[in-house]
Inverse folding.
């Protein structure tokens, strides 16, 4: 059975994370992705350690499967001509150069759409293409100036970044959505268009309820550690051997929690009768809960509370989280054989589940310039 994006040809001029993750997602669902790299290659090829069993940067490996790689030097006129010929036959182009750079080489949207009016041209930038065009779009910087760090970390501590380049991941997902919307619209109009994604807008939209709260109240939320600004108890609690997360969403669950803690009277305490009461007295409530949770292990509490209908879970390591997902039948790891070497490879599976046209894992991330012969063809087969 064919995949949803079978026959869609993608020119990937991006590197690092947001762009490559976007194009890998398209490739997982059938698009033919041509990764165009400079002679120096995607920077993440050199971001080591750690490395895979094949000696490849795990960072590069994570976002570049289902692609073919060619090398193009933008300062070489012949290379530019060949690349533009490839683009004439493409459906989608994804790039994350600093705004204005590609126009110097005739690779901007306005130039390319004259050659290929059906082209969907996706640009990913840090801060847009106007006053923020010259600002460097690094995830850490965007987490800082975008406000995410201001609400991440303990109240008494310093602002903290999220433990992964989350803004890049959000931007990648937005880019995929934008490209799919443009492809759908092209079915009726026959015309391509430009898709513009920037990291700052992605993080502002991604903070959802926090940005909405700021707009409504005029007050910026403060760091609360693992607590929730609108629900309590909804955070992490110390156990005898680690940390357990407890997510109480209503009065019934709070009553069940109190019974499991051996303190049913807490449910009738005037300080904790309603969610609003519990939010107002979250500090006292956390102390009372931790007086009990520290007596047993995190795993024990998680099992006991979940059995009683109280959402709870041990704070896992990533390795434990992968095993947990596997135990739930979610198949978080995809395995394939390299079609050229026959060697087995492992990858994090796509989180998108389709019942008839599921993601396929055809080829591992390519070596630098592994498919250079495609450059000589001048058309994207």
């Amino acid at each position: 059975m064919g995949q949803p994006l079978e026959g869609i040809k993608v020119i990937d001029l991006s590197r690092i994370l947001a762009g490559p993750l976007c194009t890998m997602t398209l490739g997982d669902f059938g698009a033919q992705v041509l990764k165009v790299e400079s002679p120096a290659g995607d920077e993440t090829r050199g971001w080591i350690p750690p490395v895979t069993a094949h000696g490849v940067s795990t960072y590069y490996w994570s976002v570049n499967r289902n692609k073919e790689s060619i090398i193009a030097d933008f300062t070489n006129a012949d290379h530019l001509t060949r690349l533009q010929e490839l683009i004439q036959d493409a459906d989608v182009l994804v790039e994350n150069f600093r705004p204005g750079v590609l126009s110097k080489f005739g690779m901007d949207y306005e130039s390319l759409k004259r050659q290929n009016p059906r082209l969907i041209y996706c640009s990913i930038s840090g801060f847009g293409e106007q006053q923020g065009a010259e600002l460097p779009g690094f995830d850490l910087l965007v987490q800082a100036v975008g406000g995410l760090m201001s609400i991440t970390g303990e109240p008494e501590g310093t602002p903290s970044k999220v433990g992964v380049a989350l803004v890049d991941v959000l931007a990648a997902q937005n880019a995929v959505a934008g490209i799919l919307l443009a492809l759908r619209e092209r079915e009726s109009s026959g015309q391509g268009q430009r898709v513009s994604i920037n990291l700052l807008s992605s993080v502002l939209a991604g903070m959802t309820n926090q940005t909405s709260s700021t707009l409504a109240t005029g007050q910026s939320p403060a760091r609360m550690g693992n607590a929730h600004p609108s629900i309590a108890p909804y955070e992490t609690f110390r156990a005898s051997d680690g940390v357990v997360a407890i997510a109480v969403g209503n009065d019934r669950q709070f009553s069940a929690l109190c019974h499991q803690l051996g303190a049913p009277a807490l449910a009738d305490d005037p300080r904790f009768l309603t969610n609003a009461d519990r939010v107002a007295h979250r500090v006292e409530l956390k102390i009372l809960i931790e007086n009990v949770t520290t007596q047993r292990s995190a795993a024990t509490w998680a099992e006991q509370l979940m059995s009683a209908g109280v959402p709870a879970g041990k704070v896992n390591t990533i390795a434990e989280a992968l095993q947990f997902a596997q135990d739930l039948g979610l198949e978080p790891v995809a395995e394939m054989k390299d079609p050229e070497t026959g060697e087995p490879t492992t990858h994090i599976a796509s989180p998108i589940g389709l019942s008839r046209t599921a993601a396929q894992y055809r080829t591992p991330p390519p070596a630098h310039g592994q498919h250079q012969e495609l450059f000589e063809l001048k058309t994207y087969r």
Notes: The longest strand covers residues 32-37. The chain has a mean pLDDT of 95. The first helix runs from residue 18 to 28. The radius of gyration is 25 Å.
